[in-house]
Amino acid sequence: MGENVVAIAEFLTAEHRCCDENFAVVEEAAQAGDTARCQREFQQFQAAMEWHFQKEEEELFPTFEQTTGNTMGPTRVMRLEHQQMREALAEMQGALGQGDLDEFLGQSETLLILMQQHNIKEEQILYPMCDRFLASNAAAVIAAMQAVSAHPPA
Amino acid sequence: MIPSAGLSLEQAPPFSVPLRFFLTAPWFLVLAALLMLWQGPGIFASRWLPATLALTHLLTLGFMAQVMLGALMQMLPVVVGVVVPRPRLIAALIHILLTLGTLALALAFLASSPFGFQIAFGLLGVAFGVALLAIHVALWRAPVANGTVIAMRWALLALLVTVSLGLLLAGFFGWGWRVSVVIATDLHAVWGLIGWVVLLVAGVAYQVVPMFQITPPYPPQFVRGFAALVGGGLALWSVCRVEQWSTAMRVTGTVLAVGLAVFAATTGRLLGQRRRKIGDPTLSYWRVSMASLAVTALLWLSSRLIPTWAQAPQTDLLLGILLIFGFAVAVINGMLCKIVPFLAWFHLQAQLLGRARIPNMKHLLPDAAIRRQGWAYLAAFLLLLAAAVDPAIFTYPAALALGVTGAWLGVNLAGVGQIYHRLLQSLPAEAKSA
Ligand SMILES: [Fe+2]
After folding, report:
1. What is the pLDDT of residue B136?
2. Fewer C-beta within 10 Å: chain B N or C terminus?
3. Domain Hemerythrin-like, which positions (chain A) (predicted)?
4. How remote is the C-alpha of A92 from its chain's centroid?
């Protein structure tokens, strides 16, 4: 029980840091003007982000909503922000497809802020709430999130 | 008003709330430059001259407090998860009172006018009263007390002390209240610059440096201890200052200076470990800022060891320039260049909802423009330091550089605001009311 208290926060925060590292690699490739490498790295980054969103949207958020009976609160805002980031990622993909690395870098700057602002809210507010409300259930929720297989966005 | 159509704007206040503060602040740098041009080299003779005090307050209230209060109204909902009540009304009220109050205070110093101090007392008293109340309410409602929230609570406590002492001093000049002016001024300056400004920047840095430069987090022991060390150290130092216990003052002062140096060094080390490899103007501003803070601490420590330095009026002036213009203005300038284009983009995409193409942040404010203005900032900073040592030669060049960097920043930010409004107006009328 004791070790479960920070379990969800720890698990998902580690995923955020992992995505951050991916982001830095993508950005570096774009700055270096290496379109092919940037494309490769971006694909990985976008997939990692999408998979992380799916784990939250398909497992964590529904469990949180059922447990707290609140579907209009923080999880709704988080879902909307995921949608915003998906759109920003799609725009980046478009710019990369046209080989416009300048445009790509301008949009990646925006995505970084969007992403970190979202991460701050989750790490500081939502995940601690999840750990508080789902404490006894945390191991099961994490297992369920690990079992989510990456698939294209709905 | 355009409804925010389900996007995640519930928690973000309207763009006008922070923007009005951000667009006003740079012009106070220009006013400060004009004051220097008018007064000439004499303004650097001592920190106690009326014109020097007017200059200081144009920078601290006009630029620093202006941006910090605007940013807090924007940031609290995002970082802390609480909403400042009636954001538009409160922001407009604070902004107008703070702007007029700062002007009144500067004029009161310059004209030695008791009536001017009475006006400034009223305007600034209400401005900070409302701001402190709104922000305190928000901070104490914060659901999670993390390192940032704790540092900000200490920072607000320090702001409360700073403002109270400032009002007391205004009462002295305005109505002849009985106040020990020298002691109250020292406490006012130290609580303002070390308490409020350093702790607020630290609280922001804990979030912003690791997240946006992609660095490891601040060491948790540091985050836990720093705010309490600075807050407690300041309280002890203040008692010693009032009681004139000079040895105890030296000891607490040394602890504080070492604490600031450790914060600067820790941040510098994290920036050195950043995973983000691309060049970024904000990064340079963080570096200048932390270097200034470290030099402030070193200069203060060495001036305690070298009595001739401790007595020289230049030492206090240099400390002030390093802390105000080097440490605080640098961080604020760097953040403004990110936050204004981002917020413009954020509100545009929420309101246009795909009906028009939205320029990315770097189109709203190009890196090249940020970088050139940054060089002007650096020139102004170095020239100000030189002017503190040799006013006869450097005062006018410093004033010119200060005016250039301030106006340039103002123009850069206003440009973003212009694109924002133009794009919103370009929408067909039915789309706007949708
Ligand atoms: Fe998320």
Report:
1. 79
2. N
3. 8-130
4. 16
Distance CA A136, CA B330 (A): 47
Closest CA to B215 of B298, B136, B137, B283: B283
Domains and CATH numbers, chain A: 8-147 (1.20.120.520)
User: Per-residue pLDDT tens for B24-53?
Assistant: 999 999 999 999 999 999 999 998 999 999
Is there a contact between B74 and B16 (Cβ–Cβ < 8 Å)?
Answer: no
Q: Do A113 and B10 touch (CB under 8 A)?
A: no
**Residues of A with CB below 8 A from B348's CB?**
none
What gap in Å lies between CA B267 and CA B359, rounded to an integer?
A: 33
Neighbouring residues of A142: CB distance < 8 A, sequence distance ≥ 6: A7, A8, A11
User: Quick check: A114 pLDDT over 60?
Assistant: yes
Checking if the pLDDT of B434 tops 70, the result is no
CA separation, residue B408 to residues B178, B376, B398, B415 (Å) = 43, 9, 15, 10
What pLDDT was estimated at residue B5?
27
- Residue B158 scores a pLDDT above 90: yes
**Of chain B residues 210-249, which have a CB less than 8 A from chain A?**
211-212, 214
CATH assignment of B9-421?
1.20.210.10
**Cα–Cα distance measured from residue B206 to residue B147, given in angstroms and rounded to the nearest whole number:** 7
